[in-house]
Amino acid sequence: MKPYLISIELERLQTKIDALLKEKRELIDKTIKECEHPLAAIRELPYKPPINSFFTAEPPHLVCTACGLSEQGWGCGYKKLKHADNKNVKQITREEWAEVSLRIYNDE
Ligand SMILES: [Zn+2]
Fold first, then answer.
1. DSSP symbols for 33-101
2. pLDDT 10s digits, 51-95
3. How many independent structural domains does the chain possess?
4. Domain of 13?
5. What's the average model confidence in pLDDT over 4-10?
6. How many angstroms separate the alpha carbon of residue 49 from the centre of ligand 1?
């Protein structure tokens, strides 16, 4: 239950937040759709093996630094960034990947 003295203002702000998030999603979608994912802009986040039996391995990713599209290399493999698979693309750290990756492609 929201505090009643500010509930109307909170709802008004939430409506604004929802509209801005929608605008952000649409901008990212449009940018990714229009990007040609040039090979020079692709970076690879390498596979990370498990450090012990309590941690699982982390999959490799390819990410386009031009538009922020990222794809995981396991499962069905790369689709949108397939042209960069097994090419000599530069590697990035997990922190750099997290910063540049705006959308993880997952067939939707
Ligand atoms: Zn791209």
1. HH----GGGEEEE--B--SSTTS--B--EEEETTT-EEEESSTT--STTGGGTTS-PEE--HHHHHHH-
2. 888 888 888 999 999 999 999 988 788 999 999 888 889 999 999
3. 2
4. 1-34
5. 91
6. 27
